[in-house]
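User: I'm writing a tutorial on reading structure tokens. Could you give me a worked example: one chain, its sequence, then its tokens, then a sentence or two explaining what the tokens reveal?
Assistant: Sure. Here is the example chain.
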Amino acid sequence: MTCVYRGVRAAAFCALALVATAGPATAGLYKWTDANGRIVYSDQPPAGNQKVETLQGPPPVANPAAAKELANKELEFKQRQLDKVEGQKLAQGKDVAAKEKQENCALVQGQLKQLGEENLVLWRVNAAGERVEMSNADRRAERDRLAKWFRDSKCPG
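And here are its predicted structure tokens:
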């Protein structure tokens, strides 16, 4: 098969046609310039003494499942990236939870200290929305409730 260069599109088409009809991968593709200055592509070398460039097609696929393996590797890479992002989010969530716990522990520790001071008057709002002074029994009950939360939450101190 012989194609004569008549423009960029025609050359590209000829090259593709030659490659598509080239038979086995070991068959060569030849390129040369003819006497009229046109570029010629052929699967057979030219007759005579002309400067010929031998074009080799792509090497045969060494592994027929290479495309599938590449797709699987890419999928595994994307899954690792997603796992990494999820791990970072989980770590951030744990950091936020630890900070919140630390703040709650400090708040409860302060409330326990206030409830333990006998000479300090503490007020509570009842169901009617009125301020009522806490009795000693109310203070002990609240202190016991907060102390239990403090122990159960494993707060430091």
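What the tokens reveal: The longest helix spans residues 66-116. The two ends are 90 Å apart (CA to CA).
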